[in-house]
Amino acid sequence: MAGSIAINYARFEGINRSELGGAVVMAIAFAVLFVFNVVRSIRHTTYVLVVLSIFCLIRVTAFTMRAVLSGNEKAGENLNVVIAEGIIYSVGFFGLVYSAYTLVLDRLRMMRDRHSSNGLANMILGIICNRRLVRIGLLVAVSLGVAAGSLTGSDSQSTLNIATALHRASIYIFLAIVASLVIVTANLAYDEHKEGMMKHEASIGRQYRVLVLLAIAFLCLTRESFYAATAKDSVKQNNAHLWYPLSALPELLAVMLFAAPGLVPSRRELAEATANKRSGSGSHDAELQHLSH
Predict the structure, then answer these.
(1) CA-based angle 145:150:156, to the nearest 5?
(2) pLDDT tens across 238-256, in order?
């Protein structure tokens, strides 16, 4: 008779009926943000808004699945659904981090003059400002997370140990990338302060964009620090009383901050800033050449 007792895998993973309301609220909130960002991306298409819209859609899917798992006993007994929810949620973080990173690097590219340091610090900044390396790092983190999720249904203890190791590696890579995001954003804040750019533009987003970007970066860091701190304690990591305020809520607040007016530049603004930067550099070189003669 014991063999006929169904196992509720959702309850085992910490998804309880008590969080049904929270999951529904988060799904609705991200659905609203999805529509909002889709409208914004249609009005002026940028890579940041497109990826952010995809992130919101992934979160709607994940929280809808979480609501179903918390409220439906039969769904919770389906191991594949539980695994799918975990994978979808972990993969989605890629979109938020990459949107924030892209926005900060775009802002750095738009600046006329860079106040770069010399030596080791400059080399480190060059590495963590490399878009290709950031993409590769995020893809590796996502791939490890997906691989870990796909192995969690195994009956073999050695396979489960591998899944745990892959999951932790994914968390630590995400943490390193988010920490790099904080450093790059702080560097942007220093450069903009040096140029006095924060005092001469009208909209709230443009006047205080560095503060908003720093807030987004630290919210991402809060989320991933929670996962890193609980990487060896799945009970705490899956505790809804900790998971919602330290994982779900920081993501929601970060996405909401992207709505600050003037924060996300359009493609036209990026192109104009790049052109002005090049023309300014060319004029400066011509002046130097003239003075040398």
Answers:
(1) 115
(2) 889 999 999 999 999 999 9
